[in-house]
Amino acid sequence: MGDKQYQNAECGGKQLDRYVSFDGIDCNGNARRVMALIERNLVGAENAGPFWEYFLAKRKPRSGPPPDDLFLVHCHINQIREFFEECTDFEALELLSQLEEECC
Questions:
Q1: Is the C or the N end of the chain the one with fewer CB within 10 Å?
Q2: Is 36 among the domain residues?
Q3: Residue at 72 is within a domain
Q4: pTM for the complete prediction?
Q5: Which band of pLDDT confidence, cut at 50, 70 and 90, is reported for residue 46?
């Protein structure tokens, strides 16, 4: 890919640049912020359920290297979105949508 830019046919009267660069986007930092928002919401959640214990335990596995936060968020994005919706945490939902759009 490198410096190549890919374009498709005109759409709506203008050329679309189909190459997306992640340069300058703090994907790892935003994933860490999403994880912090999950932890913040779990403190107040009455019935978070066993999934969240499992999810948080994946950050520190008994063997092998731990996955990074971006990988965990990407793998469980729908469960995270549902959790933030249940918590009515609109700040967290917005950050999650941004992370999904820019990095996943």
A1: N
A2: yes
A3: yes
A4: 0.76
A5: confident
